[in-house]
Amino acid sequence: MGMAAGVVWYTLCVRILSIDAPGTRRGGYVFEDSDGSLTFGEIEVDPTKPERQDYLQLYRLLQQYLPELLIIERPFLHIIAGKIGGLKMGAAVLGIPYWEINPSRAKVLVFGKGRGRADKKEVKHWAETTLNRKLSQHCADSYLYLRAYHLAT
Fold first, then answer.
1. Integer CA distances (angstroms), 135 to 14, 59, 70, 73, 123, in order
2. Burial of residue 54 (number of CB atoms within 10 Å: 0-12, 13-18, 19+)
3. Are the C-beta atoms of 19 and 72 separated by less than 8 Å?
4. Bridge partners of 44?
5. Is residue 72 pLDDT above 60, yes or no?
């Protein structure tokens, strides 16, 4: 099978970091490397320490992976809005574009119309079944946002 004249075929290899921002204690992330491999991790914050420690931890995460794209949840809860703002600032400093999505939109993209209110157990079950591995809820949410990005773009 040949290619049509004038058509250029290419694969865009992008390093993507998808983060479920921590609230008062925990968050999670998934990093998709340009070869498609996935790395999952937990983000733990300590509410008894100065908030700047949380922002530095998130900034170091961005520095560690240096993604070409950051995916973050569009904040709808006050408790995560500051952390998401910190991630946006860190991304701006490092020259990393970001893509935001709210959880219900991500669920519709991944699970289909009428499924925007799927609960956390359903998201976790879906992610663990899809990947055939155990995940924390935060890593499952991060993976949901990553899949939603791939389906939306």
1. 23, 23, 20, 18, 11
2. buried
3. yes
4. 26
5. yes
Q: Where are the alpha helices (DSSP H) in the chain?
A: 51-65, 78-94, 103-111, 120-131, 137-152
Return the pLDDT at 46. 92
Q: How far apart are CA 135 and CA 146, in angstroms?
A: 15
Q: pTM to 2 decimals?
A: 0.89
Of the candidates 116, 119, 114, the one whose C-alpha atom is nearest the C-alpha of residue 140 is 119
Cβ(139)–Cβ(127) under 8 Å? yes
Structure tokens at 106: 């991500």
* Pair of tokens at residue 47: 């509410």
